Protein 1
Amino acid sequence: MKFIKFVIIFFIFFYNVNIYANEASQWLKKEIDKILISYQNPDLPNENRFLMIEQTINNNFAGAGIAKFVSGKSWSSASKETKKEYIKLFKRHLALSIASLMQGYSNQEYRLTTSKFDEKNKVTLIDMEIYSDNSTIQVTWRVKQSKDRYFVIDLIVADISLVVTKRDEFNSMLKTVDYNLKELNNKLSQQNESSYNKIIN
């Protein structure tokens, strides 16, 4: 009897885990396709393509959480206004980084290969393969559900975490301003403006 109960509980658990993973994969595919469709339209201006990416990042990435993690020890000493401005600038920086990567897009195909729900961390890991002429790039999306919505919390390309890479990058920048987040905002604003001009022109 105990064994039968265990089997029932196991299959209920396994079924629920697969539901979480499949729903997250369907959501992710829908959001990726929105961006790719804009890049498949040769008549769409670069500015419109970027705005599509920025909107997707703002809606679907855990931008505030990633921004806070990336800022490290400088976060605690910053004012509320400085933090608010920093999060806004960081989200744009993230959108510009992804838009820069997308500049190399030329109708490559992709497919979501596997997805699994990490019960311990409450995170869905979705593997994606991007095919070009003679190579394949492996990408893993880390997706977390909050209430009734999904959010991307990290993107791992060839075993390199976007979030960890950004933390290292921002730590180097923060060193130059003595970990003053307000001063970083000034540098980040200038950097964003320069990157934006390169992408839309």
Protein 2
Amino acid sequence: MKLSKLLLIIAAIVAVVPSCKKTTTQLEDDTKAIKSYLSANGITTEESTNVFYQVITEGKGEQCIPGDTVAIKYQASTIENPTNIFEKNEGNKAVIYYLPTTLGGTATGGPAPIYGLQIGLTTMKEGGKSKFYIPSSYAYGASKISTDSIEYANLIYEVELCEIIHRDKKH
């Protein structure tokens, strides 16, 4: 093969390769997928720090804040398969979570929910029910949630904030 022909092929490959690079972040891709899902299903939501939420029941108690210990009932699915519940509280028993004082951090009192759920909970009042659409970047990322789930799954959490048990600014 002539050198000029080889150089032409190499130049064509070099020109194509940069266009194959991903130019968006995972969070941007997640947000776009969630917005598309919401639009396709006629769902109206509000947004807080890239977590989309739909208030089902407003609640009448205190607003949840970072540092709270909360009791919630929930079920979780993905936007890719919203009818397949992969996680939920057992029976009618609420789950206790400790929200870190800095969202996304760790809680010293016990288990903290995923970052997206931490954000979502701070939009709720005690006694309220909401549905959250959480980007994979704020959830499990590249990890699979269950054997039949996909990587980078955007989540749907249906949550009832049963009670704010304790306000402790230490965790």
